[in-house]
């Protein structure tokens, strides 16, 4: 009798531990992706004084979609169910993987927009409507295409998309028939994230190198100046930091996929759950989000005479090409 009571207590303790971790996971995902990020997006889109490029909106929105997808079972009333309806599991797996595609491609769009408008890497900062349209269309289109193909395949061949309830969300079953879909998203996402990291670090290095060639240049003065490259350094640093955060996430997810019964699997889940919150802390705390700014006058490139704005209405001052503007105002990065 004593051993039976001890066994029951151990099961109850394990259940409580699992329940606590589940609650903690959903709190992190909801607070970061469904409360803080939507507030930041609303501030960015509704502000009359601070304008952000739509690629930044798309990148943040992709993390909101990820958060909602992770909570799909919870919102359908099966968040704590050990055996949710199979159809709901299929939909959740499709949604989560589709949002990974959207996150990857929106990250590429964000970095490419920086690359095309950064003065130190591109001589022309003029906007291209066609380019901007493509950068905005590709991320959601990639997600929709993946979701349609996945759901269509699940109706034709259930074994190729077989899913099951995982620890916190639904996941692919560990069988040979699911290897293609189970590995496709991690591989594509890893390639996109690594490309983003390469280009963002190169842009950051190039910008610092260009600024260091200016006589009397100091990093502290640049970061505090609204027209001497400080805004560029800030946004490039934020982008590089967040992408660098994603790389260990991919590694942790790969380890978790190879050893699903590893005792550290909950740490991996919590690490992934922190990503929407990390996106808010890095991008949602830009100065334009934290408070309204006075409207910045248009900037005229004295080399070409063209009005420029770049990625976030910021420009870099160099010895060969300066930017003239009105009275100094607070940085909008």
TrEMBL record:
UniProtKB keywords: Membrane, Transmembrane, Transmembrane helix
TM annotation in the entry: 23-44, 56-78, 98-118, 130-152, 180-199, 235-258, 270-289
The protein's name in its UniProt record: G-protein coupled receptors family 1 profile domain-containing protein
Species: Exidia glandulosa HHB12029
Lineage of origin: Eukaryota, Fungi, Dikarya, Basidiomycota, Agaricomycotina
